[in-house]
Design goal:
Elements lengths: L5 H6 L14 H4 L6 E7 L5 E5 L2 H27 L3 H5 L7 H14 L2 H5 L12 H21 L20 H12 L8 H6 L15 H8 L9 E7 L10 E9 L6 E8 L3 E8 L7 E3 L3 E7 L5 E9 L2 E7 L2 E4 L1 E10 L5 E10 L18 E7 L7 H8 L5 H11 L5 E7 L4 E4 L9 H7 L5 H7 L3 E3 L26 E4 L2 E4 L29 H15 L11 H8 L5 H16 L2 E3 L5 E3 L1 H9 L11 H9 L26 H13 L9 H4 L1 E4 L2 E4 L13 E2 L13 E3 L1 E8 L2 E8 L14 H7 L4 E2 L4 H5 L5 E7 L4
Helix pairs in contact: 3-7, 3-8, 11-12, 17-18, 19-20
Length: about 800
């Protein structure tokens, strides 16, 4: 929706009645200083620059503009955390994904999980500070003000226009969505296993429900949430031409739904002034910069929960031993409403079982609930109520050294690393995320022998739950029990650079590897992904001046060119060997036994420019080859040369030609030498926007994931590069480039639905707009005010 002119909005300022918010004391729901008022300056591409006199009014402005642009996204998030997905979006069966989600969130509601997070001293560590509570309260008021003025029936977004699930928010809604975000890589990741957990009966084993999500977590090589990732550089004085710091932010997140980013600039004069992005529905900048500090996040490899193997009491599978004493599990039966075939709804109930460690979880075939053993998890993010305060204080830090003090004090990052740099030219990498306290000593003493290989290979710790000495305990410097303190977490300051592309902490800078940290954080001295290796190679080549760009060192324009150079590192290493192999073997047998002619594939690969640009021909063929398992190396990984090894195609492995044959078969009906921009697109209205970028499996840094539609191509991006920022911190303030690849609004009738997507297609950018001069220079700047008057 286009913002109204300033005079119209001032006239529309509403006087509203105070309403009690469920789960929040009425006094906390009232504004004490005469109402809310925020100035909104919409710059190019609809990016709001919001200024307010306090954090409550700042939150009001954020809630209002996010509702203008993405009300359906926020409303659906609230439906999810209030356990109403089945009711409003349907369910194919009592075990449908919506039903499982509702049961999980209904239990959290019945347990009063969000309410408990608000208890305690309001110091930003034990419970959220007053400033953060003000932001949440203001956000709710701003969203509700927009919805009240517009009305659900008059929304311009067809996704939720007139829908019964679009309703005013409460503060409790927002705290529930915050909690759900905190447990994204832990309890939510295994919610299927929590819902499925049931004890065996006297006559036999429990009826096992499927738990596909939990099984995927167990199979994952690390603790990163499925479907997200990122690249980031922190560049110090030795890596930049101006001698100050620079940061590349390149998170890879979903292009649709609850995890979309939203660009904004937030300011409370003298107290907070930060530009960047946050997930839609969050009131604070989570990736961005202030005048002298910039930062980004990448998804960490660390695990967020631990398993406890329970020794059950004979004849009573809901009781377990601790130090020889029996303890009884607690139970809670929750009920959700599911649409009935003939209309209306029917109740679906499930009984959950909890231990003093946490919920019992079942993963069929791996973590089963038998007559003698069961498995519970401890989720260390389930009590993480520190995140918004942590990000607020990050935005106030002036240097990376101050940033470290914020990380140490709050220990709030739920499942991400931080990569940062400051105007003095110092860079920082840290995995200061919330990690269970599994030290090497605890792992050696308390992980039973059958589970030691699982811990070594993936970082999943299965502790002996029958001994109290195997509890997580507390580090002296940890802000809460059960997590690793700062002294046990990897951190590195550098004057040249730090980087991360979702491998572990080990090679944040290959010149100074981070080693000797608990395995639960991530692996060390092991092979890195092609994307990680390319990320490091790009910086090394830039500093050496061997990447084909002018000079040495980074400017923001050269950093932008690096990100969108669209190199496919797997192709650089393996393409020539692959072409020679298929030339020598013009036919091969696919996995289904079909004989496949490879001559066209050889020609397409030979003509490929080794990039994933719009004009690149044959890039999709190499991608499908990589996805089919064709990237197999002949040489071994060398921990002494981890960036450049391994590097040669194993042409003697028959699976290589099989993968190429499978790729050709999969691409039937699509020219093997098609231009990438003709077959990889993103729909925007009745137009298709060509999209560059590609898969990490092919070694692409600018990651774009678009599922293949047989015979058509890649017609929809599901996730990949999202908010991209290249910011330079100089004496005159920050400058640089930024873009939100999928655009600011999810509403197809918004003027900001497709503009940045088209800009991304052409490798364009919007400029950093932080200083008053930068903002006022924007030719599309429009100013209006949002607020509500004094309550009576």
């Amino acid at each position: 929706m286009r913002p109204k002119p300033l005079c119209a909005l001032v006239t529309a300022l509403a006087t509203v009645a105070t309403t009690a918010v469920a789960g929040v004391p009425p006094a906390a729901a009232r504004h004490q200083d005469g109402g809310y008022s925020a100035e909104v300056r919409r710059a190019s591409y609809g990016v709001p620059h919001i200024t307010a006199r306090n954090f409550a009014s700042l939150g009001f402005g954020v809630g209002h503009v996010q509702a203008e642009d993405n009300i359906c996204v926020i409303a659906e998030k609230v439906v999810t955390v209030n356990a109403e997905r089945s009711r409003y979006f349907g369910a194919a069966s009592p075990t449908d994904a919506n039903v499982r989600s509702d049961l999980f969130h209904r239990k959290a509601i019945d347990d009063r999980t969000a309410e408990r997070l608000l208890q305690g001293p309001r110091d930003g560590v034990h419970s959220p500070s007053n400033e953060v509570r003000d932001q949440i309260r203001g956000f709710v008021a701003g969203y509700n003000s927009y919805l009240r003025r517009t009305g659900a029936a008059n929304l311009t977004d067809p996704a939720c226009r007139g829908k019964p699930w679009v309703r005013p928010l409460t503060e409790l809604d927002m705290w529930r969505t915050s909690w759900a975000s905190m447990v994204r890589a832990s309890s939510r990741a295994v919610l299927d296993g929590i819902v499925a957990a049931a004890p065996p009966t006297a006559t036999g084993p429990a009826a096992v429900l499927d738990a596909p999500g939990a099984a995927a977590v167990v199979a994952a090589r690390d603790g990163a949430p499925a479907g997200v990732g990122s690249n980031a550089y922190g560049l110090g004085a030795r890596a930049t031409t101006h001698g100050g710091g620079m940061v590349l932010a390149n998170p890879h997140f979903p292009w649709e739904g609850a995890e979309r980013f939203y660009r904004m600039h937030l300011k409370v004069p003298g107290r907070y002034d930060v530009e960047g992005a946050a997930l839609v529905g969050d009131p604070i900048i989570e990736i961005g910069h202030n005048r002298t500090l910039a930062w980004s996040h990448t998804v960490s490899t660390a695990r967020r929960f631990v398993w406890h193997r329970l020794a059950l009491v004979p004849g009573d599978p809901t009781s377990y031993y601790v130090d020889g004493q029996a303890r009884k599990m607690t139970t809670r039966t929750v009920t959700v409403q599911v649409p009935a075939p003939g209309g209306g709804t029917v109740p679906v109930s499930r009984t959950f079982h909890d231990t003093h460690f946490g919920p019992v979880v079942v993963v069929p075939g791996t973590f089963d609930w038998t007559a003698t053993a069961a498995y519970a998890i401890t989720d260390v993010n389930a009590t993480n109520n520190r995140a918004f305060d942590g990000w607020l204080e990050m935005g106030r830090a002036k240097t990376v050294r101050e940033l470290k003090r914020v990380l140490d004090r709050h220990q709030f990052l739920p499942w991400v690393n931080v990569i940062a740099a400051d105007a003095r030219g110092e860079a920082l990498y840290a995995d200061h995320s919330v990690v269970p306290r599994v030290t090497d000593e605890l792992a050696a003493a308390c992980i039973p022998a059958p589970f030691q290989p699982l811990y070594a290979s993936s970082g999943q710790a299965v502790l002996d739950g029958s001994r109290s000495v195997c509890a997580l305990g507390r580090d002296r410097d940890a802000v809460v029990p059960g997590i690793l303190g700062p002294a046990n977490l990897p951190i590195r300051f550098r004057a040249d650079y730090v980087t991360n592309s979702n491998d572990s902490h080990w090679l944040a800078n290959p010149e100074a590897p981070l080693e000797g940290f608990p395995r639960i954080i991530g692996n060390e001295r092991t092979e890195r992904s092609l994307r990680t290796r390319l990320g490091v190679e790009q910086v090394r080549e830039r500093l050496a001046g061997t990447d084909g760009l002018p000079g040495r060192g980074y400017t923001t324009s050269r950093l932008w060119q690096t990100v969108f150079g669209n190199r496919a590192y797997g192709g650089e290493l393996l393409r020539d060997d692959l072409v020679a192999l298929c030339a020598a073997h013009p036919t091969a047998t696919a996995s289904d036994g079909t004989t496949v002619d490879l001559r066209g594939a050889c020609a397409a690969l030979k003509g490929w420019d080794l990039r994933v640009d719009l004009d690149s021909r044959g890039a999709h063929l190499f991608t499908e080859f990589a996805l089919a398992g064709g990237v197999r190396f002949a040489d071994a990984f060398d921990a002494a040369d981890p960036v450049r090894t391994p590097s040669r195609l194993n042409t003697a492995d028959p699976r290589v030609l099989t993968a190429l044959a499978d790729a050709v078969r999969k691409l039937a009906g699509i020219p093997l030498d098609a231009r990438l921009g003709d077959i990889q697109t993103e729909p925007r209205g009745d137009r298709r926007v060509p999209i560059h970028g590609g898969r990490a499996e092919a070694g692409v840094f600018n990651m774009i994931i678009s599922p293949l539609a047989p015979g058509v191509g890649y017609p929809k991006v599901v996730h990949g590069s999202s908010f991209v920022m290249a910011v330079e911190l100089g004496r005159d303030g920050p400058s640089g480039r930024q873009i939100l690849t999928y655009s600011q609004s999810s509403n197809p009738n918004s003027p900001w639905y497709a503009d940045q997507t088209r800009l991304y297609s052409g490798k364009g950018w919007d400029t950093i707009k932080y200083t008053e001069a930068q903002i006022k220079a924007d030719p599309n700047l429009r100013t209006y005010r949002v607020g509500e008057g004094r309550r009576h």
